[in-house]
Backbone:
């Protein structure tokens, strides 16, 4: 069953308002509100604590004045989704100041960070990423980057998941180059959230944002065409195929099966060179309409 994040229209409107003015300067001459105090940020990812995306995010967020601590997986945990380990022990390394490496999933890393590294005082924000490659459509459902943000939301901490890439297979050089503009945008987005929140919460309780930044230009360093408040496109994008090897094993190949993009979805925005910002929640609820449908479905049934 695919996780769908259906949110009330009011929350989509909130995200649209939060994004106002975050497009390139040519699209809006209005200056953004002045930011307030710096934030204490737990920075995680699913590519590993030493991956270029998280290191670039650490550098840029720290330069923006935030107090940033990396608590991320020791090894690459791409595709682990919301998985959390159930082992009786966990290995944690502290290779340098402000950096913790957890031998587990992004969810494990966030859980450890909230419980131990930030013990007694939760961070103001969890940022997960930036991920190498996109987390749009069905990719987001299985993303460890998104899973790290979900773990934060489950604990009541605001979270943003960051990803860099188009809807095709990521090119190493241009994708890494595009991580710069991705994190630059994240700094602007966080400033906007802080300014609008004042002394209140950065986002409504239980609501996070997943941000997908496209790769723009031949070198990946180009400026996105704009910013769009989107939703998770319902298509899966990746199509697996299994071939019997005859010895009890099966060869697995995965191809891109990109269908027409849903209007207003994240795939449409990223394909057009825009930054897609989608609100998400941390549960599997699909909304009151589906609850009513389910109630009608089970009416009259007895154990």
Residues:
């Amino acid at each position: 069953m695919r996780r769908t994040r259906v949110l009330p229209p009011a929350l989509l409107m909130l995200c649209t308002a939060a994004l106002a003015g975050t497009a390139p300067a040519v699209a809006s001459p209005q200056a953004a509100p002045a930011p307030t105090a710096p934030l204490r940020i737990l920075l995680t990812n699913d590519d590993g604590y030493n991956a270029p995306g998280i290191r670039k995010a650490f550098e840029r967020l720290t330069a923006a004045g935030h107090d940033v601590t990396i608590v991320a997986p020791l090894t690459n945990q791409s595709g682990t989704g919301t998985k959390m380990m159930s082992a009786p022990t966990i290995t944690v390394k502290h290779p340098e100041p402000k950096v913790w490496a957890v031998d587990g999933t992004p969810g494990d890393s966030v859980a450890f960070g909230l419980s131990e590294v930030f013990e007694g005082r939760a961070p103001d924000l969890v940022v997960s990423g930036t991920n190498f490659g996109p987390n749009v459509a069905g990719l987001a459902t299985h993303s460890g980057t998104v899973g790290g943000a979900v773990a934060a939301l489950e604990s009541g901490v605001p979270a943003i998941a960051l990803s860099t890439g188009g809807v095709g297979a990521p090119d190493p050089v241009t994708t890494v180059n595009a991580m710069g503009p991705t994190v630059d945008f994240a700094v602007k987005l966080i400033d906007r959230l802080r300014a609008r929140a004042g002394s209140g919460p950065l986002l409504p309780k239980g609501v996070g944002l997943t941000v997908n930044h496209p790769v723009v230009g031949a070198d990946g360093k180009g400026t996105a065409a704009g910013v769009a408040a989107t939703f998770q496109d319902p298509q899966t994008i990746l199509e697996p195929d299994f071939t019997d090897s005859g010895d009890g094993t099966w060869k697995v190949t995965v191809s891109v099966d990109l269908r027409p993009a849903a209007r207003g979805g994240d795939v449409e925005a990223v394909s057009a060179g825009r930054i897609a910002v989608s609100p998400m929640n941390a549960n599997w609820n699909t909304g009151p309409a589906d609850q009513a449908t389910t109630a009608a479905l089970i009416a009259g049934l007895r154990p």
In short: Confidence is low (pLDDT under 50) at residues 1-10, 20-33.
